[in-house]
Amino acid sequence: MYSYSIRMARARQAVLPDVPGIHGILQPYADAGVLLPRSIPEICENVRDFVVAEDEGRILGCGALHLYGTHLAEIRSIAVLPGRKRQGIGRVLVEALLEEAARHSVTCVCLFTRTPEFFSRLGFALARREELPDKIYKDCVSCPKLSLCDEIAMAKGPIPANVNGLRDPLVAIPLALRKP
Q: Which of 13, 21, 40, 50 could lock onto 59 through a cystine, CB 3.0 to 4.6 A?
């Protein structure tokens, strides 16, 4: 389906037999607090969201696209084997996920990252997390780092206005979880 290739890596849609490889790549990043943990059952449940980059059948990296609607999708769980970083694999993954977003007619793709320089080279711009209530409601409210978040919100495409009728994106965050 996907035909991107850089340094022999290519991205393709993930399938259930890829789950152990995806989990193996994500887990060290989760252990280090870089990515949210994803259990094997959770990856199985959402395997259709994932793409993997591979070389000669070996999974080198993975990433997922979470669809909120045609107004917004989120790139998440981008991870590359440590020994294969800086070889274009992350770019291959992001480009495949952007192609998938375009296939679904998504107008804005967002992400939260600690490496904004990488994503800015791929056309993403800084965004305010308050502009992305779908993401806040889906993941941030249950994140242990909610009040100490060090991730930077970024988006590619026009940020949706007043999504789902929310005037104040913080309405989606329960009072007990809001920053004082």
A: 21
Span 9-19, pLDDT tens digits: 789 999 999 99
Reported pTM = 0.81
Task: Collect all residues with Cβ–Cβ distance below 8 Å to 173 and sequence separation of at least 6.
Answer: 136, 137, 140, 141
**Domain enclosing residue 152, as ranges:** 5-177
The structure tokens listed for 52 are: 């993997």
Task: Please write the tens of the pLDDT for every residue from 30-44.
Answer: 999 888 889 999 999
Q: Which residue type sits at 174?
A: P
How far, in Å, CA of 80 to CA of 86, rounded?
Answer: 9
- What is the CATH number for 151? 3.40.630.30
CA distance 134 to 118: 24
From the number of C-beta atoms within 10 Å of its C-beta (0-12, 13-18, 19+), residue 86 rates as exposed
Q: How far apart are the first and last CA of the chain?
A: 47
- Exposure string (b/e) for 123-147, b if CB count within 10 Å is 16 or more? ebeebebebbbbbbbeebeeeeeee
Counting the structural domains of the chain, the total is: 1
Q: Which of 85, 114, 86 is nearest to 25 (CA)?
A: 85
